């Protein structure tokens, strides 16, 4: 179309060039390796050059007068934003809403209606909607896509659902089916919030009556996860570490229900138990090596079958319900070892330290289980019967088969051998003929014996003789069974003694 210069822009003042027949418009985008690139167009309609590309409208001007960049520098030009179409800007932009609808079930005695959950997906690029139902195993319903993707009309003809019409808590009618929106995903909530739409709070989907009834009938599947037990690691960590407990067992077959001591060993490497008898000297029992050999000790030993060969076989893990562990062995507690009751009354130092540091359990103090024995009977000392010394009489009562002499003070004998104390004495006479008689006392320090010898005198009528041989003489008034003998302290000048009376008694 051509325009004559100077004419007004009115109909009739323009005429069409009949030589121009090509009115094609070149494309603005190119695709390279599957990606869209914008293309700069430098030609117009019908491949004719644009006015801005030609020199017809170019006027020469003085650059010094009209170019400010020479004075103020180059001006930063903002890049022109590329034109992006709506379908490119909103490509793959989806809004997802969670909803449900009620489906009536008229011919079933178990349910009257059914709750079906769906996802309403809105495509922003072309304002289309599709309804998808998640698959439920063994539902017996045709699920997945319920409404194919298209523009959904409202009740008013010519009016379609738009993303501005959606919100939580509203009902959406799609081809006669009423869907109630209860929630949306996080992206949908954020996008609608950015567009100025305030979303309501989420709602709960009502439970399906038939599904709830079916779940009550299904028994829950229970599975017990076994604790991982690395036997090799336990062997390397606890090999040689044994807990030792001291226990007693009341033997019902013995007289007086004897408490028999035992030692219980608990091996930490494999949780096995060993019981060993503790024998004392002269207890009258044959030493037997073990009461229970090393094995895993079951708590309920009666749960085994009657025909189980317990004499030749060990109880396996699958045949016993539970076993004793280290926490079951506590001081003061009673444990049952294959039907026998054992009272744990003490533990060693390593066991107490292991319970306190590893298991955080403080063991009780040791319990005294020893029987209170009555004091032994003391045999009465027999009275002195007059033969020999009182020591000889007492020594003869201590032994029956072989008579032994009484023990002497060897140190006193060796130190004082040959040492004697001599005194001259006269008799406390009664008869006149004994008035002038004199005697020599010899006291031996080695054996505390006394020898009396008469000193001869002329014309006295008494000859020199040993009046008393070497003898230990008790003091007068002492007990014959435990006499007190004369000592050097009893002899002094001018002191009276009664040795002569003892000598007369012995000589008679």
What are the SSEs and their pairings?
Elements: E1 2-3, E2 14-15, E3 29-32, E4 35-38, H1 63-66, H2 69-72, H3 86-89, E5 94-104, E6 113-123, E7 128-133, E8 144-150, E9 171-174, E10 177-184, H4 186-194, H5 209-217, H6 231-238, E11 242-250, E12 259-267, E13 272-277, E14 292-295, E15 334-337, E16 340-347, H7 349-357, H8 390-398, H9 410-415, E17 420-426, E18 438-444, E19 450-455, E20 466-471, H10 499-507
Antiparallel strand pairs: 1-2, 3-4, 5-6, 5-10, 6-7, 7-8, 9-10, 11-12, 11-16, 12-13, 13-14, 15-16, 17-18, 18-19, 19-20
Give the tags.
508 residues; alpha+beta; 25% strand; 6-stranded antiparallel sheet; disordered C terminus
Largest sheet: 6 strands, antiparallel
The computed structural class is alpha+beta
Helicity level = 10-25%
Query: Which outline best applies?
Result: elongated
Quote the beta fraction. Answer: 15-25%
Mean pLDDT: 81
User: How would you spell out the order of helices and strands?
Assistant: EEEEHHHEEEEEEHHHEEEEEEHHHEEEEH
Give an overview of the whole structure:
With 508 residues, the chain is an alpha+beta fold. Strand 18 and strand 19 (450-455) form a beta hairpin. The protein has helices at residues 63-66, 69-72, 86-89, 186-194, 209-217, 231-238, 349-357, 390-398, 410-415, 499-507; strands at residues 2-3, 14-15, 29-32, 35-38, 94-104, 113-123, 128-133, 144-150, 171-174, 177-184, 242-250, 259-267, 272-277, 292-295, 334-337, 340-347, 420-426, 438-444, 450-455, 466-471.
């Amino acid at each position: 179309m051509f325009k004559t210069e100077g004419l007004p822009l009115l109909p009739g003042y323009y005429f069409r060039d009949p030589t121009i027949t090509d009115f094609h418009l070149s494309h603005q985008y190119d695709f390279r390796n599957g990606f869209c690139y914008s293309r700069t167009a430098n030609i117009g309609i019908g491949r004719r050059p644009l006015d801005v590309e030609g020199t017809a409208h170019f006027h020469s001007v003085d650059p010094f007068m009209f170019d400010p960049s020479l004075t103020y520098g180059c001006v930063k030009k903002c890049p022109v934003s590329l034109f992006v179409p709506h379908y490119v800007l909103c490509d793959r932009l989806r809004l997802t809403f969670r909803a449900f609808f009620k489906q009536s079930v008229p011919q079933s005695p178990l349910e009257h209606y059914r709750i079906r959950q769906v996802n309403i997906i809105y495509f922003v690029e072309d304002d289309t909607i599709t309804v998808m139902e998640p698959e439920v195993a063994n539902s017996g319903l045709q699920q997945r896509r319920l409404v194919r993707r298209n523009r959904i009309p409202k009740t008013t003809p010519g009016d379609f659902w738009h993303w501005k019409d959606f919100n939580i808590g509203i009902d959406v009618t799609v081809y006669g089916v009423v869907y109630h929106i209860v929630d949306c995903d996080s992206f949908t909530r954020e996008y609608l919030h950015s567009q100025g739409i305030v979303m309501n709070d989420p709602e709960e989907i009502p439970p399906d009556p038939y599904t709830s009834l079916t779940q009550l009938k299904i028994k829950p599947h229970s599975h017990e996860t076994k604790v991982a037990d690395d036997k090799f690691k336990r062997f390397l960590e606890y090999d040689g570490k044994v807990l030792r407990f001291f226990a007693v067992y009341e033997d019902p077959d013995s007289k007086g229900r004897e408490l028999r001591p035992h030692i219980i060993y608990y091996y930490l490497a494999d949780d096995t138990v060993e019981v060993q008898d503790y024998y004392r000297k002269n207890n009258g029992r044959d030493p037997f090596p073990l009461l229970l050999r090393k094995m895993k000790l079951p708590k309920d030993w009666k749960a085994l079958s009657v025909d189980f060969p317990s004499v030749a076989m060990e109880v396996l893990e699958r045949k016993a319900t539970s076993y004793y562990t280290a926490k079951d062995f506590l001081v003061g507690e009673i444990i049952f070892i294959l039907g026998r009751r054992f009272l744990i009354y003490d533990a060693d130092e390593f066991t107490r330290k292991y319970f306190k540091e590893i298991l955080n359990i403080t063991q009780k103090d040791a319990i005294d289980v020893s029987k209170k024995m009555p004091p032994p009977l003391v045999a009465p000392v027999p009275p002195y019967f007059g033969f020999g010394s009182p020591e000889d009489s007492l020594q003869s009562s201590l032994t029956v088969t072989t008579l032994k002499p009484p023990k002497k003070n060897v140190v006193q004998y060796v130190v004082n051998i040959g040492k004697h104390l001599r005194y001259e004495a006269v008799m406390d006479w009664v008869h006149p003929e004994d008035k002038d008689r004199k005697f020599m006392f010899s006291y031996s320090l080695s054996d505390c014996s006394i020898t009396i010898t008469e000193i001869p005198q002329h014309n006295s009528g008494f000859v020199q003789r040993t009046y008393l041989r070497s003898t230990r003489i008790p003091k007068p008034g002492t007990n014959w069974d435990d006499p007190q003998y004369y000592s050097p302290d009893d002899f002094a000048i001018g002191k009276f003694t009664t040795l002569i009376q003892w000598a007369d008694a012995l000589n008679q």
